[in-house]
Fold this sequence. Notes:
There is one protein chain. Helix 7 crosses helix 8 (about 180-195). The protein has 3 domains: about 1-110, no CATH class; about 125-210 and about 315-495, Phosphoenolpyruvate-binding domains (TIM Barrel, Alpha-Beta Barrel), CATH 3.20.20; about 210-305, M1 Pyruvate Kinase, Domain 3. It is built from 19 helices and 19 strands. The model is unreliable at about 1-5 (pLDDT under 50). The two termini are about 45 Å apart. It has helices at about 1-40, 50-60, 65-70, 85-100, 115, 120-130, 155-165, 180-195, 255-260, 320-330, 345-360, 360-365, 375-380, 380-390, 400-405, 410-425, 440-445, 450-455, 470-485; strands at about 140-145, 170, 200-205, 215, 225, 230-235, 245-250, 265-270, 275-280, 285-290, 300, 305, 335-340, 365-370, 395-400, 430-435, 460-465, 490, 495. It is globular. It is an alpha/beta fold. The strands form 4 sheets. The protein has an 8-stranded parallel barrel with strand order 1-2-3-13-14-15-16-17, surrounded by 7 helices.
Amino acid sequence: MRKLVQKKELNKLSSLQDKLLQLREEVYQEGNETFERWKPNIKEKGFLVSARNLAYYLALRRRDIRDIQESLMPWGLSSLGRLESRTLENLDAVIASLDRIRGNAESEYQYPPQKTFLKGKSKLEQNANDILGESPKNRDSRIMVTLPTEAAENKKFVKSLLSAGMDVARINCAHDGPEEWEKMIKHIRKAEEEVKRKCKIMMDIAGPKIRIERLYTTLKNPKVYVDDTFFITGKEELDSYYGSEIVISCSTIPEIIDSLKKGDPILIDDGKIEGVIETIKKDGVIVKVKKLKKQNGVRIKVEKGLNFPESDFKINILTKKDKKNLDFVCKHADIIGCSFVKDPEDIKLIQKEINKRLGKEKANKLALMLKIETVKGVQNLPEIMVAAAAKNPLSVMIARGDLAVEVGYLRLAELQEEILWMCEAADVPVVWATQVLENMMKTGIPSRAEITDASQGANAECVMLNKGDYAVEGISILDEILEKMKEHRYKKVARLRALNMAKVEGE
C-alpha cells in the first residue's frame, strides 16, 4: 500500500514537473520576445539584465498559476510567490528540486548559482543607494520629507529635519519659486556638513495638474449638495453661463474641456465632490453632483484639483511653467520628480527637455522619479519604466492621492502592491507616498491606521512624509517604525527572528 501511494505521488510529481517545464518555456519565449523589442532603445547597459527579468516576470504574471503554487507547497518547495527579482532562476531552482525528489540524482536540471539567484536583490539595493542615497544602518528604507516655505528662511529647521533622520528632501515646484528653492538647497548643504549626513534633493515638477483656477458664483457661500449642478469652462472670462450659480474655470488646459463626453465622471478636491458630466455646451459642460464627502455640503474653492478618471485626452506632460522651472531644476536637483506620466512618449519628452539644458552625457546621469498617479500610468507602467531606465537612473513614486481618486480606494489597495512587485522585477526603487503619518505631521498625534500604513511603507526603498507642524516628531516615529520592520520583513519575505511573545512562562 505504501509503495502504491508513493507511486501515485511520484506520478503527481511528474505531472507537476511537466507543468513547470511548460510554464518555464512559455515564460522564456514570451519574455525574450518582449525584451528583444525593448533592447534597441536601452542605452544604459546596466539596465539590460533588469529589463530581461522584467520581461520574464510580465510573461509569468499573464498566467494564473495558483494551482501550481498549491501543488508545490506540500513538498517543501518554493510556491513562486517571491520571484519578482529572479523569475527564471526561481523556476529553474524549483524544477531542479522536483527532479531530485523524483529520484533523479543525476538530474539534467541544474540549480542556478547563489550569486545569480540573488543578483536582482543586490542590483535593487545598489540602485536605491545610487539614487536615494545609502540607507542608514538602523533601517532599510529611507525617509523623504516635503519642505515647506519655512525651509527657505529657517536653516535651524532644516538642520533639525536632517538630525531627525531625513534622507531625501523634496521640493515641490508647484509652490514657491527659484529664490526660495535656492535658499532651501543652501540650507540643506550646510546642514549636511554640520550633521555629517548626506541628503539627496528631489525637485518635483508639477506637471499638468488640473486645478480650479477661477471661480464665479452668485452665492455668498459656494457650497454644493447632492443633485446640484455647476458649470466648468476652459475660458478665462467668467459669467453666469446658462444661469449657473457656480462657474469654475481651468483655462490653462482648455483642451480638456473639449474632450469631455456626457456621462464622464469628475472628482474635485481629492474626491470630496463626485459628479458626472450631464450636458455638453459650446462654452463648457454642466456637472451634476452625485456624492459628497460631507452631508452638509462641500465648498468649492480655487486651487483645488480636478480629476477625470474615465476621460481620454492627450495633454502635454510639461506645462510652460514646468519648462521654465526645469532651467533651475536641472542645475540643482539630484532627482527630478515627473508628475502625471501616462506613457513612454511623456518620458521621451521629459528626457528631450533635460538634454536641451544639460547635454546628453550629463542628462543621462540625472535620476528620474516617475510619479504614478493616473489610470494610464498604471496600465503602461512596464513600458514607462523601460523608456525611462533605458537612459536614466530610475525610481518610482506611488502617488496614492491622485491615484486613489483616479482608480477608487478599493482598487488602490491592490494596485499599490502590484506597483511594488513590478518595480522589484525591474530593480527599480520605490517611494511610498501620500498621507503617510498625516495626522502625526499635522497634530502630533498619529492615528492607529496610519501607523499600520507607515509600517507597510517598509516594503519600499523610501517613505515620503508631507509637510506639517510636527515634522521632526513625525520623522522620529517613522524612523523607529522602519527600524522595527527591518527585523521582521524584506519585501514579501518574513524574517523570523525570535519573538518575545513566543516565550512560555517558566522557560
